[in-house]
Amino acid sequence: MSALIAAAVSGVAFCFCTATASLCSSWCGNDKPSSIPPGANSGRKRSVLLLALSVVVALIFQYAVAPRLQPDRLTAYTPYIGEYLINAWTAGCTQSGSAELLQVCSGNSGVYRASFAAFIFFCIFGLAAYCRPTANREAWVAKYVLFLFFCIGTVFISNDPLFLPIYLNIARVGGSVFSIFQQVILVDVAYNWNESWLAKADKAEGDEGPGKGKKWLAAILAACAILFIGSIVGIILLYIYFGGCSTNNAFISITLLVSLLCTVVQLKCSESGSLLSSACMTAYATYLCGVACSKNSNPLCNPKLGETSVGNIILGLLLATMSLLWTGYSSTANKRVGGRHEDEDITQSGEVDETPKVGGLVVDGSYGSAPTPCEPLHEDQRPAITSDPTFFNNSWKLNAILGLICCWYAMALTGWGTVERRGNIANPDVSEVSMWMLIASQWVALSLYLWTLVAPSLCPGRDFS
């Protein structure tokens, strides 16, 4: 009887393990056959999900693990391992001067550990994707396991010198590079949104008849109204809630004046700009100003500083995590990494769909215009399927951008590596450095947008399209 029970249990366990492995393989495995060349977007969703995991691990290390690895906690009395971990997590923090600052420094090192593990992961697989472009979409179960081993391994590594100061300085450089890259993306998005809706209006006029494109033009005006009204309301609220000191007042006033200047220049002097792009940049500038004011560590300038209710903690963690993930996902879009989409019209057998979707086709390594859906492709029009691994050679750029994002979020969660009395888990990145980096990002974004408006007039001989 016992043999039958053991056999039944073994059978159930085998079925469970097989089903679990199949589920993991379907969720994290290769989603396309090897006959389809990889594009720059290969593995993007799985990569960003791994980035999300690293952010969660960083927050756990910063606010759950680091406070328990302090000299005055019970962990210090755990034989061997307790003393070793405390020394590892507080190494390089002796200049902090107080127990509170020592815990801040130790928490920062927890963020560096998770960020460093993700940074090394994306660097390794960026090199792998450069040598083998299909690497971005293969063996994701093993990749997640490897990343978790990286995170566990960093727990036992001393801060000094790997995290403090080597990786800290690397992350500062990488985070600064990504901050500039992010502002360029936002300006590009503002223009592309307007161009996309104008193109849809023109298409509706041509396909559906005269006057049918007005709905898209009305949508543009409605979006402009919503963004401008929201920006005005936001600036008024900033004056009400954060106008208690000269620094915040200066930030808010500069935001208002420069946004107004950009809009006036766009309306009066620029032929390349659009009202929707100005509305987008005004709303984005207002958002950055609000976030910068909320990072002010001066209680007189930030009345919300120090509130630690459960609601604030949950909201703060959700906002921090979601904003980091949205940054990672939007910054790794196919156009951002300069790559092409994988050809969805190529089947597993290598045949080409006779009625392709209207859009760009990769023909002999370059883009072409697809025929109308009613016209079958001739033999000489069919896209060539190549086995050359260098045909799609942009997939490594996805890992490069995610590596920069790892540096950036490490700086965002630690106030750019500063050790000072600042926010708490409800607002984890309150610091003077974070405030100035955010407002500097706003100034860079507005300056770039203003330059795109005046550059065609200042340099008429150059093509800025």
Briefly summarize what is shown.
The chain is mostly helical.
Describe this structure in words.
- This protein is mainly α and 465 residues long.
- It folds into two domains: 22-27 and 38-160 and 359-377 and 391-407, no CATH class; 175-305 and 430-465, no CATH class.
- 64% of the residues lie in helices and 2% in strands.
- The protein has twelve helices and two strands, in the order H-H-H-H-H-H-H-H-H-H-E-E-H-H.
- The chain has a two-stranded antiparallel ribbon with strand order 1-2.
- Helix 2 (44-65) runs parallel beside helix 11 (395-414), helix 6 runs antiparallel to helix 7 and helix 7 (214-242) packs antiparallel against helix 8.
- The chain is globular.
- The model is unreliable at 340-392 (pLDDT under 50).
How do the strands of the widest beta sheet line up side by side?
A: 1-2
SS-based class: mainly alpha
> Strand tally, please?
2
The end-to-end span amounts to 80 Å
Mean pLDDT: 76
Number of separate helices: 12
Keywords: Membrane, Transmembrane, Transmembrane helix
Membrane topology: Multi-pass membrane protein
Family: Belongs to the TDE1 family.
Transmembrane segments: 48-66, 111-129, 141-158, 216-242, 249-267, 309-329, 398-416, 436-459
Can you lay out the helices and strands and say which pair or pack?
Elements: H1 2-28, H2 44-65, H3 81-90, H4 99-131, H5 140-155, H6 162-208, H7 214-242, H8 246-268, H9 275-294, H10 310-331, E1 360-363, E2 366-369, H11 395-414, H12 432-458
Antiparallel strand pairs: 1-2
Helix pairs in contact: 2-4, 2-5, 2-10, 2-11, 4-5, 4-6, 4-11, 6-7, 6-9, 6-11, 6-12, 7-8, 7-9, 8-9, 8-12, 9-12, 10-11
